[in-house]
Design goal:
The complex is a heterodimer of chains A (287) and B (317). Chain A is mainly alpha-helical and 287 residues long. Chain A has a domain of 188 residues. Chain A contains eleven helices and two strands. In chain A, strands 1-2 form a two-stranded antiparallel ribbon. In chain A, helix 3 runs antiparallel to helix 6 and helix 7 packs parallel to helix 11. Chain B has 317 residues and is of the alpha/beta class. Chain B has two domains: 223 residues, Rossmann fold (3-Layer(aba) Sandwich); 76 residues, Alpha-L RNA-binding motif (Alpha-Beta Plaits, 2-Layer Sandwich), CATH 3.30.70.1560. Chain B has a six-stranded mixed beta sheet, sandwiched between helices. In chain B, helix 3 crosses helix 4 and helix 8 crosses helix 12. Classes of the chains: A mainly alpha (287), B alpha/beta (317). The structure holds adenosine-5'-diphosphate and magnesium ion.
């Protein structure tokens, strides 16, 4: 790197910060723009609305209509809804993270500076993760608040696991949405495509592959995310053959993802999409 | 420390089969201002984007201080400030915050940041707006902030792509003054423009480009004398404090060195067709003074450079 020179004036080579420090700067200012943006608060409000609806429904119908013990309660509350919060975070913060820099021309303000493209990408990614974690934390806090209110302070350890898996899922989803956003140069296009993928397409493919084609859908990210809900089910669901079909004689397999499988799928998705996304952004031209 | 340099080696950029820049070889070294002149679509922005690694070269290399921009962008751009294609600034940030981001990325010590930011913002006359969100700024105001961002770290090399676009006439002349003032601070300035008078006003040297090809790179006055037709005739308008008679014009002035022809426009003004370089012009001026005809003004028109520019551009069609 540049050596400090004793010479005064503008000819002194500046002491550039290392790439990691530059990532930190990117994260800091990206978060600043998040906290000033409508998007962050809209997502926060969506999280609060989902939480309020659940709170109201449970209060109105009585908790016993939904769960008989603490684990069942977290399964009903958290296991069913947190993936939506994760997916919305991915779309809100990742959907146009990179494409927006092109479409809005804000990227041109940064790329002419002495920093690696990857520092921009990683810095923005960490900011998106941080903002999403804040939303997720608020959402988890309300779930726990209700759980403690109805079933006391002893929170089942499975909820802790589920929480960790949710964060892992969030990491994978953000990896994926960042990758997709670096495929496009239009914000709305990349947001639309990621939304369609996560809200419909993946689940649909998963359904078709598993129930019609009878193949374990290990290559679908949403299948891997199944561990978030599965871990809250006692006993842990397993893949099983059931008699079904019209005649009642055909055997149908119901696939359940195991914890190691689920972790592998989510980590795999993150690693692959992060690498491709970074490479795409490195090569992308600011024309 | 060696003097700052930028160099293009066989630099080419194609978009599909279209050649936006072909085989540019250009080395600029030392503290000076070089105008990069060419009509719209000539390849100026393309060149500057190659020098900041915003796009990849199809062939060749862009070097800054001998370092390949593409291979080692961080090091190559360490002492470069650039303004290319009027970027947008994050609308929810204030100029102070946006410039702090740049300062932090470039490793400006915390103790200097506040002062430097206020200084450059004052230089582009945006002090009043320092803490207002950029989102509501006009194009010209954003361009001023972009200029201040390029100047912020006192880079020894400045790459400016039509810096005065989007500015009103007053803004344009302010930007020109800023660039001129930088010349006294030992900077290498490479500034693109499609405006001839902008380049001839500010720069010491000019590189002309059209259809992706470099036409000429030389000192401003050399370009004129080398390329303008018939040894470079230029028009010089001369103003006098008192009347002049025809005879002085035809006899005394017409016979001065380099004068092709001289005519009286009104009683107190002359138009001289002149051929020669800057030194000859200097001599003509002193000859005219020596004639004691009441010389009060001496305006060589820039039309020679303009003719050169137009001729060169026409030649590549
Ligand atoms: N992304 C692109 N795809 C195709 N052609 C391009 C692209 N960018 C620039 N060009 C073409 O390259 C030529 C040079 O453009 P540019 O360098 O922007 O010119 P200027 O001298 O006006 O800055 C123009 O003809 C332009 O149309
Ligand atoms: Mg241009």
């Amino acid at each position: 790197m540049s050596k400090p020179s004793l010479k005064a004036g503008p000819t002194v080579l500046p002491n550039l910060p290392g790439s990691i420090a530059q990532v930190g700067v990117m994260t800091k200012y990206e978060l600043l723009t998040y906290f000033r943006s409508r998007r962050f608060f809209i997502l926060l409000i969506i999280g609060l609305i989902i939480s309020s609806i659940l709170t109201a429904v449970v209060a109105y119908y009585g908790v016993s209509s939904f769960a008989s013990n603490a684990l069942g309660f977290y399964s009903f509350w958290w296991g069913n809804s947190v993936t939506l919060v994760v997916i919305l975070s991915g779309i809100f913060f990742g959907g146009d993270a990179i494409s927006g820099e092109f479409q809005n021309k804000t990227g041109y303000f940064l790329v002419g500076n002495p920093l690696r493209r990857s520092s921009i990408y990683v810095g923005k990614w960490i900011a998106a993760l941080t903002a999403s974690l804040i939303i997720l934390a608020v959402y988890a806090a309300i779930a726990v608040g209700n759980g403690v209110y109805y079933f006391g302070a002893s929170i089942p350890y499975q909820f802790g696991e589920s929480l960790v898996f949710s964060v892992l899922y969030l990491i994978a989803v953000l990896g994926f949405t960042f990758f997709f956003s670096s495929l496009f140069k239009s914000s709305s296009m990349s947001i639309l495509v990621t939304a369609i993928l996560f809200l419909f397409a993946f689940s649909l493919i998963q359904l078709i592959v598993s129930s019609l084609a009878q193949i374990e859908p290990w290559f679908i990210i949403t299948y891997g995310a199944g561990i978030i809900g599965n871990v809250l089910t006692d006993p842990y669901p397993t893949t099983q053959s059931v008699r079904g079909g019209f005649s009642g004689r055909e055997a149908t397999t119901l696939y359940a993802v195991s914890i190691p499988e689920g972790i592998a799928i989510l980590v795999g998705y993150f690693v692959v999409t992060a690498i491709i996304g970074l490479l795409l952004f490195e090569r992308k031209e600011f024309t | 420390m060696s003097s700052p340099s930028i160099e293009a080696v066989n630099l080419s950029k194609r978009y599909g089969s279209f050649s936006a820049l072909s085989n540019l070889n250009l080395k600029i070294e030392g503290s000076k201002c070089v105008g990069f002149l060419g009509p719209n679509g000539a390849g100026k922005t393309t060149t500057l984007k190659l020098f900041t690694d915003m796009i990849r070269a199809s062939e060749g290399k862009a070097l800054i201080n001998g370092i390949s921009v593409h291979e080692n962008k961080k090091k190559a751009l360490a002492s470069v400030g650039s303004l290319i294609e009027s970027p947008e600034i994050y609308p929810s940030l204030t100029p102070r915050e946006a410039l702090s981001m740049v300062a932090e990325i470039r490793g400006m010590p915390r103790s200097e940041r506040k002062k430097k930011i206020e200084e450059v913002v004052a230089e582009v006359r945006m002090e009043e707006w320092l803490d207002k969100k950029v989102g509501k700024f006009s194009k010209g105001m954003k361009q001023r902030i972009n200029i201040s961002a390029a100047l912020l770290s006192e880079p020894e090399i400045l790459l400016l792509d039509e810096p005065s676009t989007g500015l009103d006439p007053r803004g344009m002349s302010e930007v020109r003054e800023i660039v001129k003032s930088l010349k006294h601070k030992n900077r290498l300035i490479f500034m693109s423009s499609h405006l001839l008078n902008e380049v001839s006003d500010i720069c010491d040297e000019v590189a002309m480009i059209d259809h992706g090809k470099l036409l000429v790179y030389d000192k401003l006055n050399n370009v004129v004398s080398r390329f303008s037709g018939d040894g470079g005739e230029i028009i010089i308008d001369v103003g006098l404090s008192r009347d002049i008679d025809d005879q002085t014009v035809t006899k005394n002035i017409s016979s001065l060195t380099g004068v092709v022809s001289a005519e009286r426009l009104e009683t107190k003004s002359l138009r001289i067709k002149f051929s020669g370089n800057l030194e000859n012009q200097e001599r003509l001026l002193s000859d005219l003074v020596a004639l004691k005809i009441g010389l009060v003004s001496f305006h060589p028109s820039s039309s020679a450079l303009e003719d050169t520019y137009l001729n060169l551009i026409k030649a590549t069609l």
